[in-house]
Amino acid sequence: MTVTAYLALASALFVIGAVTVLVRRNSIIVFMGIELMLNAANLAFLAFSRMWGELDGQLAALFVMVVAAAEVVVGLAIIVSLFRTRRTVSVDDENLMRH
Description:
By secondary structure, the protein is mainly alpha-helical. Helix content is about 80%, strand content about 0%. It has helices at about 5-25, 25-50, 55-85. The chain starts with a helix and ends in a 13-residue tail after the last helix.
């Protein structure tokens, strides 16, 4: 496969993730969209790494995976905490963090 095919797939995944983040109101689904965008960025990093024959893209992808794992842990902890207090995971509640 060519690098163009990998980049086309990464672009499609990123667009799907971005649309999911912008359209959906459930915070768990929003996190899934963010993870999809991060995986699309990883795919692009790895495609460029393969194209140039260097390990920099692989190192960047590894760093993105570490940051994504930390983001999921913190984000899901916040979601569980908010669900226990408010009984909702909707992102439409504007004043949710103020109280």
